[in-house]
Design brief:
Structural class: alpha/beta
Distance between the termini: 35 Å
Order of helices and strands: EHEHEHEHHEHH
CATH architecture: 3-Layer(aba) Sandwich
Radius of gyration: 17 Å
Number of domains: 1
Number of helices: 7
Strand content: 5-15%
CATH superfamily: HUPs
């Protein structure tokens, strides 16, 4: 079985891809350079793709910074050391990002004859993005089966989000059980010039809390 996986180079996408591989999928990894300020994650995605021994890894340029609208794609400051409230959509939300990414992944999947898309979204320990919710994924799956020749001809597309209802600590435990090296990953939204994580953005805080709750040191901090 073939699956297209959205691979950012972060902890969640690495784990989701590894879960899919453990379930028997041959992975085709898609990494998108969308004008993100934390482009360091693309380097991490290459390392992760090699570690997963994917069948093919495509890096695609889709420059969403041309539109702006997010502190990840503009010079606007990334929020730091804030209390994360999932009822509030932060400035790091990139308009329609997961919809754009999944649409591209869907196109590749249809070419490959693959019916499965894998995404590492999480609806528990996250920053409140609307495109990380289960109802969004269910809606996109319906769209995929309505809007493609494969779907019209009877194929069935499925969106796999194996981390959707896991805490960050449980995600880390799951990945470690699969033998993953989280030292390969990058999560920070606003890294230092030398690539080190800032330690203060939402993503860094969520990652740190996950490792702390799992009782495990973050290997990325030792490199």
């Amino acid at each position: 079985m073939d699956a297209v996986v959205l691979l950012s180079g972060g902890l969640d996408s690495y784990t989701a891809a590894a879960v899919a591989k453990a379930e028997g999928f041959r992975l085709f990894a898609l990494t998108i350079r969308y004008g993100q300020r934390h482009v360091r994650e693309v380097e991490a995605a290459r390392l992760v793709a090699r570690a997963l021994d994917v069948a093919r890894h495509v890096e695609l340029d889709v420059d969403l910074s041309a539109f702006g609208g997010s502190s990840l794609t503009t010079a606007d400051p990334v929020p730091k050391e804030r209390a994360i409230d999932r009822a509030e959509i932060p400035s790091t939300y990139v308009p329609a990002r997961n919809t754009v990414f999944l649409a591209i992944a869907l196109g590749w999947a249809e070419v490959l004859g693959a019916g499965d898309l894998v995404i590492g979204v999480n609806a528990l320990d996250y920053s409140g993005y609307p495109d990380c919710r289960p109802e969004y994924l269910a809606a996109f799956e319906r769209l995929a089966n309505l809007a493609t020749r494969a779907g019209v001809e009877g194929a069935r597309f499925r969106i796999h989000a194996p981390l959707l209802h896991l805490s960050k600590a449980d995600i880390i435990r799951r990945g470690l059980a699969l033998g993953l090296d989280y030292g390969l990953t990058h999560s920070c939204y606003d890294p230092e010039p030398d690539g080190r994580p800032c330690g203060r953005c939402d993503s860094c805080q969520l990652r740190a809390a996950g490792f702390s709750q799992a009782g495990i040191p973050d290997p990325a901090l030792r490199r």
